[in-house]
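Reproducibility note. Readers wishing to regenerate the assembly model reported in the main text can use the exact inputs given here. Chain order matters: entities are listed in the order in which they were concatenated for prediction.
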Amino acid sequence: MNAQNVDNKPKVQKETKNKIKVEFDRTPLKERLKAKFLSLFFLKKVVWFVFRLVLLVGISYIVLFPFFTKIAGSFMAPEDFVDVTVRLIPKHFTLDMYKAIWTELNYFKAFTNTLLLSASTAIIQTFVCCFVAYGLAKFKFKGNKFVFLAVIFSLVIPHQTLQLSLFMNFRYFDILGIFQFLHGGGINLFGKTITNEFLSSINIFPETWEKFTTEGIVLTNTYWPLIILSLCGLAFKNGLYIFMLRQFFRGVPDELEESAYIDGSGIIKTFITIILPLSVPMMITVFLFAFSWQWTDDFYTNLFFTTTKTLLMPKIVDIPTSLTTDYAGQNLYYSAIRNTCGIMIIAPLVVVYLFCQKYLVQGIERSGLTAD
Amino acid sequence: MTKDVKVKAPKKRKFASLDKRKARGGWLFVLPFVIGFVLVYLPIVIDSIKYSFYQIKVITGGGYQLIPVGWANYKVALLEDPNYVQTLLTGLQSLALDIPMILIFSLFMAVLLNQKMAGRAVFRAIFFIPVILSTGIMESIEAQNVLSGYMEEASGIEDGSGQSAASEIVSTMDIEKMFQGMAVGEGLVTYVSSAINNIYNIVNRSGVQMLIFLAGLQSISPAIYESVQIDGATAWETFWKITFPMISPMILVNAVYTIIDSFTTDSNKVMTFIAKTYQEANGNVLSSAMAWMYFLIVILIIAAFAGIFSAFVFYQRRD
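Running the prediction on these inputs yields the following structure tokens for the assembly.
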């Protein structure tokens, strides 16, 4: 008994003052490798690993390939599109398309306009959705369920169904006839010119406010329809954001707020100082969605911006006049130009995405999203 | 003694109880939405329904006039328009085919992306690119894109038929051969092969669903997996006995979301048809009537689906 123990004991040798060397009695390396790599378990693991890698790389390729072709095509000269030997790598490298889009299609103006619109609506939507979702998640009041149902209702009805009346309502925007009253009744008191001056003085956005008609304010061709919808949490897919944020807030333990209440903090203060800092990843996720969906949106842009005065990103997809051509490769060439427009539209989004993407999954992961 | 109580009682009323204050706070938080919903959204919805029963006449010199026409718009859409019913039927058919595909694919990818492996963050970042970048205007650019197909041909071998091998990822022939021994219907074979060839579309449309599934998978406690592993369950059993029931509420949510999402995208044929009618319509509100009919049908589908499926959904009881 004792002898055996002594045999299996690791041998401890003192190498230096602070170092010891321990020698175990181990199975030989060959045996160990055999046991590790020649088992069915390992084989299964390898097969699964290869299968998974091939699948993931393949699907990544499917996702990325259209972008590769767009980028490759954007550097090609017209000759390359009739040359059979040219596919992905341009022979006549040129930046003509970028130059033409930048100068002739007024890219920079569209960029600043869209940035202003997307950033303002996305920030408003993020905070409003946080507010509404927090109210729905953490407070029990009469009508809570009803309000949540209304949120789902607003998500379910597509805005395309409401196209015509969205346009009509913002063409002559009026809440409960207030503007009509102001216009009809208010003139005698304030004078029409005063009202107009007042409205034009708060005009922070480039477009017209002067159309103050008897039927309401003309809001088309301004940013206001989208800002009003954002302020109410009714803009594109806001129901989804509210739903996601609500699930997230439900996962936040009540004790956090309770301790804040006991310390004398009010409801609003607790929300701003305790809850909002907690939910930054989730808010970035919502912001990213709202920002990029507004950035590339063409439904609302075509609906509310009927003139070309306010140039927005989706409106610059066109063929610049200097690049018009009518030779053989026209179809492919025009397609490449449109693709280049697309690249230039999403280029700023790619930058935003690179910064935000790690929050995208992180935010959702923390939400502990459940459907109950 | 009794007097003391009476004096104290009104004093207490000065402060609303915490519950009441919280109820008030709740209303405060949802106020922006409620105001917007009642004052902006409801009028828009009601107007939209109203318009579908009217004819709009644009008066020269600005303004418009509404002429009630009853059910005429619906009658025209259903009985007289040669394309609407046809488009609607094919649209619903493709909806029925796409939705299971998107759900299965996104669940599968979510399970895959949830596993620990090298480069997971990179793959996740790539997989969510379409959600961010391939929407709205990009979708309509893609619809007119002939360049991508042209470049793809490079990797394939021209066989003279005009259709290169690379334009189809998997040839239908191969799948038919594979399925021959399995005695499954021809419908399934064409369904699978069309789904594989349509993979780009499916990947593009399943981004949000993947996110929701991933979040659902993250919320399953690792302790459950550990205990089944100790009991000797295989990965296959673990998926069907643990993951699937635990994720089933998310499947319901995703199914509803997918239905809503896929019948409002620009690439949806019915939606483009309605949009075209909206642009062409010269003062009539045919598009409103069409949109509402379409919406009602889809709502019925969602209700039926949710009703049937919610019976099978497993909810973990949490205490």
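We highlight two features of this model. Residues 108-367 of chain A form a domain with the MetI-like fold fold (CATH 1.10.3720.10). Chain A is about 65% helix and 5% strand.
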